[in-house]
Amino acid sequence: MDGKSSSNTAGKPIRCRAVIARKPREPLVIEEVIVAAPKPREVRIKIICTSLCHSDINYWKLERSPAIFPRILGHEAIGVVESVGEGVHEVVEGDTVIPMFLPDCGECADCLSKKSNLCSKYPFHCTPWVGRDETSRFTDMNGETLYHFLFVSSFSEYTVVEVARVIKVDPAIPANRGCLLSCGVSTGVGAAWKAANVETGTTVAIFGLGAIGLAVAEGARLCGAKRIIGVDVNQDKFEIGKKFGVTDFVNPRNIGDKTVSQVIIEMTDGGADYCFECVGLTSLVHEAYAASRKGWGKTVILGVDQPEAMLTLSSFEVLHSGKSIMGSLFGGLKPKSDIPVLIKRCMDKELQLDAFVTHEVEFEDINKAFDLLLQGKSIRCVIWMKE
């Protein structure tokens, strides 16, 4: 089935419900919206469930560019293909799919290489549009344009996504677990598995035990790390972290005059083999780099700081320490080949997705999901759409 669909709604606009962020920091509102038919190389998806990520919160709070309103947020989801646009042959109506913010075209030099997951045909940037043509597929009932978020906009009963950002997955995966693999959990697990290539018996230090940091711990555990040190100002995160393999804990507020890097160097007799910055603070990147072992220590940056934030590293130290530092978007994962591997590991009971889901709510209660995350009470809250 190439660009065809047997559904009664194929090729027609769909009227459905969506959650709209109309102004920064104000409660989201559920409204009826119009979702246009998919254009060539696009897929319209009926969302089954979605989960809330800190990136949704950050953009909801943001009052300057790249903020834009009104907008349909959401980018962690799983759904079923309702119809496809012209030229789509990768998926057909009825397929279970996970939409992705990161593309995987399978054609460019980067996508064909094992060394990169940064597609050059569809470069990642924070656009408010569905894709390259800079148009929206959403309008409200007054005809006003509603902007997209990270190419997914899953806080809608239906959404339109480029096929390069759609992964066909095993329908046996529970929807309230599969949706987690769109962003945070995959990013953290992938950072340990792919970006850092953590080895058996090594020592890992994780700066920030939010969802991504905990996912790094889970990934490091799966890779066979001997020691996983969690760093967080919330003491409760140690008990939570133990579920994901965290063996040691450092609270920066409880170490006196010492720096976190000094404590980790003492704990590990020289520094951690792998350090991960999962908060998005340059000060923590510096601490993570300082805490990594000379000769082979690797620091992986996962947190998102302000665009103008700058790192200042001593050229002398970089040269003489032999350590490395790298950024890792989506944990270095190539979506269309690596996400199915994570799904299999989940189905085989190796990857512990259950532990990440602390709350589940109905679509109508999405503001409760925001409150739980803002209060630090949830790791991931799954939001169910009604049939």
Automatic annotation (TrEMBL):
Alcohol dehydrogenase-like C-terminal domain segment(s): 211-344
Highest taxon, organism lineage: Eukaryota
Segments forming a coiled coil: none
GO process terms (BP): formaldehyde catabolic process
The entry's keywords: Metal-binding, NAD, Oxidoreductase, Zinc
Alcohol dehydrogenase-like N-terminal domain location: 40-169
PANTHER family xrefs: ALCOHOL DEHYDROGENASE (PTHR43880), ALCOHOL DEHYDROGENASE-LIKE 7 (PTHR43880:SF7)
Identification of the protein by name: Enoyl reductase (ER) domain-containing protein
Species this protein is from: Lactuca sativa
